[in-house]
Predict the structure.
Amino acid sequence: MLTHEKAVEFFQKNPALSLSVIEKEAGLPSSTLSKAVAGKRNLNDKHLQALQPVVTKYGFKDQQHAKAKVISIINHKGGVGKTTTTINLGRALSILGNRILLIDMDSQGNLTQALGIDELDRQVVNALLQSEPLPLYSIAERYDLAPSDLELAYADLELVQAVGGVNQLRNALAPLRPQYDYILIDCPPALNIFTNSSLVASNSCLITLQPEASAMKGVSNLFDRIFQVRDRINYELKVEGIVLTMVDKRLKVHRDMIEYVYKSLGDFPIFKTEIRNNVTIKESQIAQQDIFSYSENSNGAEDYMNLAKELISGSYRK
Ligand SMILES: Nc1ncnc2c1ncn2[C@@H]1O[C@H](COP(=O)(O)OP(=O)(O)O)[C@@H](O)[C@H]1O
Ligand SMILES: [Mg+2]
């Protein structure tokens, strides 16, 4: 992520760059950059958003993102906002200037369908079983997808039996990590080989929770699985945080459940941003678009943008 300080430092270290040319390319008012470098003004979020792709072209490299951070979006239950979060958190991060790859690890292929990709000739399963490169589809600027459909379901047993099968996704991602800032993996609603493979390939996992009465059922199994993968295979795996989704604060059951989540899972990071229940999100998926393309002023777009900024800032960590 480009910040005011990083931008100024980059221009100071590269005095041969023409500030006026870069301003023009980024569509900034003239002398914005010379004033910033002279310490006479701050670059705001809008400036930085416009600048990031331009300075990247001129060689700016964010050390923090020399290699993509890989995050599994996970929950053992279906219908709790995993796929929706993968799509829209990913898009928000890309709008903020990050290069994003989404991986569909659910054989239901909801992520793939929701982004309007069908009739797959190559998909994730080919990379898992035949060690082919992951197929990449460009959906929008800095926003790519490695898709799946039902074919993936048939790979289950073969992947379990293959030597090192659970490492195959990590192997397939390795050559791609320098090209992206974040890789988000949409996990299936089960603790199966595909979820295990995702956790093995990840730096961290982000758990979506819908504050319904059944939300906590099986959560201890989910955390047990995360810690087993961490203790046995992927020592660096972290819990990125818990995101509450489809929240309706008018409902007492939601307010009570959220309180209960903070009480019982408060040792883990919990994102301050809650994703409100918002029918526009449902509509956007039927229209096969992310929420920003479908309705950039919706509550859904606002919440996912806030979630992305919170993720980048790391402020949810204690
Ligand atoms: N914040 C939200 N507001 C309203 N509907 C939502 C929201 N998030 C997800 N949905 C809808 O809920 C359903 C399940 O979400 P999904 O992301 O597919 O869950 P999962 O991937 O965990 O199975 C989908 O129809 C989706 O459009
Ligand atoms: Mg899903």
In short: The longest strand covers residues 238-244. Residues 299-313 form the longest helix (15 residues).
